[in-house]
Amino acid sequence: MIRATALEGIPEISPGDDLAARLAAALPDGHLQTGDVLVLAHKVVSKAEGRVRSLADVTPGPRASRLAAAHGKDPRHVQVVLDESREVLRASHGVLICVTHQGFVCANAGVDASNAPGEGSVVLLPQDPDGSARAIRARLRGLRGTAPAVLITDSFGRAWRHGQCDVAIGCAGLQPLEDWRGRTDATGRELHATWIAVADELAAAADLARRKDGGQPAVLVRGAGRHVIAEDGPGARAMLRPEAEDLFR
């Protein structure tokens, strides 16, 4: 059985806060076990790392101004999106589909004003989400004597489907993919394409356990221990499809 429980009592996080200590305090004594997965909405990580920009401090350039005028957006917000992008793949319906410096393909380079600390500010993705997950895991090991897997997530849209779904953008202590290619199915047929996105599936499951408007940035998932590993592992970067294999680019 896989069980996902949102943690209560985590205060608003500010730049420089010891996020792992706040998480440890929110966990009941003795509640953290080997094999647990701690799933964190990226914004709580980004805020702790100071990945917040005030639009009042942003001067939009010519390209940002053109895109903003064409798509009905704040040119300062667009400039932040461009700053966080390696490439803009498409601009349509008020959305910029970008490749971030981390390699993610997502709307507006992950720059978002929801749950931002104050009017006129936006939250960015962590600069190195896998590194963030490893650091939080190591700090939790020091604080609680147990190192759960740590998964950092964001909500991404999906081609051909309405709605967003949480996916992994960073992880440590978790094998993010389970490769069944070369194995056989229940009838003995060889599997050629089955490659399970374990980290994304756990991210989506955790998101169902929290309220988007309830100040619940952390979810403890139990029952996925067979995917938890002692070492930090390859991180969520292992899930990024190389551009040469991307049929949509």
Give a brief rundown of this model.
With 249 residues, this protein is α+β, with helices and mostly antiparallel strands. The protein is 24% helix and 25% strand. The strands form four sheets. The chain has a five-stranded mixed β-sheet. A three-stranded antiparallel β-sheet has the order 4-5-6.
Describe, in plain words, how this protein is organized in 3D.
The protein is an alpha+beta fold and 249 residues long. The protein has two domains: 3-51 and 126-241, 60s Ribosomal Protein L30, Chain: A (2-Layer Sandwich); 53-122, CofE-like domain (CofE-like fold, Alpha-Beta Complex). The chain is 24% helix and 25% strand. It is built from six helices and twelve strands. It has helices at 19-26, 42-48, 62-71, 75-83, 129-144, 198-208, and strands spanning 3-6, 37-41, 52-54, 85-92, 95-100, 105-107, 121-123, 149-158, 161-172, 178-179, 195-196, 218-222. The protein has a five-stranded mixed β-sheet. A three-stranded antiparallel β-sheet has the order 4-5-6. A hairpin with a 4-residue loop joins strand 5 (95-100) and strand 6 (105-107). Helix 1 (19-26) crosses helix 5 (129-144) and helix 3 packs across helix 4. The longest helix is centred in the middle third of the chain and has 16 residues, at 129-144. The chain is globular and about 55 Å long. The mean pLDDT is 93.
The first-level CATH class name of the largest domain: Alpha Beta
Oligomer: single chain
List SSEs in N-to-C order.
Answer: EHEHEHHEEEEHEEEEHE
Strand order of the largest sheet: 1-12-2-8-9
State the separation between the terminal residues, measured CA to CA: 39 Å
Low-confidence stretches: none
What name goes with the CATH superfamily of the largest domain?
CofE-like
Structural domain tally: 2
Q: Under CATH, the topology of the largest domain is which?
A: 60s Ribosomal Protein L30, Chain: A
Helix percentage range: 10-25%
User: What's the number of helices?
Assistant: 6
Which structural category fits the helices and strands?
alpha+beta
Mean pLDDT value: 93
How many strands, which pairing sense, and closed or not: the largest β-sheet?
5 strands, mixed
- How many whole angstroms does the radius of gyration measure? 19 Å
CATH architecture of the largest domain: 2-Layer Sandwich
Strand content: 25-35%
Quick one: overall form? globular
